[in-house]
Amino acid sequence: MSRFLAMFLVVTCLAATTRDLVIFDTDSGLFGDDGAALVMLLRGSSQEVLQGITIVPGNVWAAQGAEYMFHILDLLKKPQMQVAVGAEAPLIHTAAMSKEFDRRWGGLGYTGAFAQDPTAVVPAPGSKISTRKLRRDAINFLISEIERHPGEITILALGPMTNIALALRLKPDIETKIKRIVFMGGNIRVAGNATPAAEFNFWFDPEAARIVLRSRIPKKMMFGLDICNLAKIRKAEFDQIASARNPIAELFREDLGNRYPGFLKKPDAIGFMWDSLAAAYLLDPDFVTKTESRYLDVQTTWGQFYGSTTPLDRRATPTATPVTVMLDLDFKRVFALYKDRLVRSE
């Protein structure tokens, strides 16, 4: 065997062992941060292999989230991508509970799907309802992919963690077979955005977040509001992407321009990259400049602090693994990556 061939085989084997098989768990709205995160991965490097998309309620109910994902995949010319709906509601939390919270204590902010009709599904603007058959086996899909690829699956969790919690409860032994979970959720030193105490993803399903944080998943990487609040999108950044001539940039313009945060109506508005930061971490982790390791839990006692992130009492859960909490970033670097993926014409 020639030295060149031997070197080629070594490099090929190393590439195979370092690949990142990703399951994209999302509560996607029309586009926003979830849609941008998907575009970033599908226009990313060959090292990120997207195994499938699982839909969870959060920003919208799951069937609506699937409809929005189908539309984005059509724009990307990726109709073959697996999309599966999982849980239809949080484990315990309900819209009625959130209304009662607001009646008692006030301060309720964004409530996502709780403010929407769970039976309604509408198409993306300018499109028709997808005719694709909707899979409803997301939790079994998660379990089977983890078991088929032990130690290789990265779960990118961009919404409430209901699907993941249910998978861990159904098959507890998969916890240690997951390579890592990279998630957007929680808050440590800053206020919440669903309530004064709680970040939206954790607040929408606190019991699910607790199951994941108390699990034995080897690596947990947290993009909470502490770092997400630093990744602000203003009108200047919006214009750099919205001016591009491709279907993804047009959807970006429609959603961020006319919906949230509404740059075309309110030029002084501020948006955030949120979930897109977690996706960017899979492509370029070095944009994160400060982290710390913590054992974390979630408040599940219903009250003013429901859904808030708390320290973990390790006496009760000694097998839980720590969470790497992302705290600071190089915004210019990560925005350049974000912009590059969204303005491409491919």
Automatic annotation (TrEMBL):
Signal peptide region: 1-15
One GO cellular component term of this record is:
cytosol
Keywords from the UniProt entry: Glycosidase, Hydrolase, Signal
Q: Does the keyword Signal apply?
A: yes
Q: Which GO terms describe its molecular function?
A: purine nucleosidase activity
Task: Write down the superkingdom of origin.
Answer: Bacteria
Q: From what organism does this protein derive?
A: Solibacter usitatus (strain Ellin6076)
What GO terms describe the biological role, i.e. biological process, of this protein? purine nucleoside catabolic process
Q: Which residues form the Inosine/uridine-preferring nucleoside hydrolase domain?
A: 22-335
Record-given protein name: Inosine/uridine-preferring nucleoside hydrolase
UniProt cross-references to SUPFAM superfamilies, sorted A to Z: Nucleoside hydrolase
